[in-house]
Structure formats: C-alpha cells, structure tokens
Specification:
Blueprint: E1 4-11, E2 14-19, E3 27-29, H1 32-44, E4 49-54, E5 60-66
Parallel strand pairs: 1-4
Antiparallel strand pairs: 1-2, 2-3, 4-5
Length: about 80
C-alpha cells in the first residue's frame, strides 16, 4: 500500500492542493488555511495519507501524516 501525498503550494495570490505526481491542482483556495484543511480532508480519506505544506519560498514548512504506517519500527 503506498502513501498518497498532497502538497499545499502558493500560486500567485492563491494556494493550491496538488497530489504528488499530478499535472493539475485538485483545488485552489483564497487562503493557506483553507487549502490545508482541504488537503487534510483528502489525505484522511486514504489508508495512508500525507500533507506537505510549503511556504512562499517553496520549502516545506510542515508535514501531516495520516493512517497506520505499514513499516515496523524497533522500539
């Protein structure tokens, strides 16, 4: 099972939600918070979902991961 990743990125004065590997945005929003909320909504629908939030400079500011990671970790 692979993780579905959504990126929240700036586009001019708007913010878009873009699925990793997709050519077009899933949605475009007037505010960053609305775009993050939509990306989280989409990621939570997946068994394994992730949201990567980018800043105006394009760098990743934060990540949110949803679902149970199938990898085993020694602890």
């Amino acid at each position: 099972m692979s993780r579905r990743t959504y990126h929240v990125t700036p586009k001019g004065d708007a913010w878009r939600v873009l699925r990793a590997g997709a050519a077009r945005a899933d949605s475009v929003h007037s505010s960053k918070s609305k775009a993050i909320a939509r990306a989280k909504e989409l990621a939570k629908k997946r068994a394994l979902g992730q949201v990567k939030v980018h800043g105006q400079d394009g760098g990743i500011q934060t990540e949110h991961t949803f679902g149970k990671d199938p990898r085993r970790f020694a602890g």
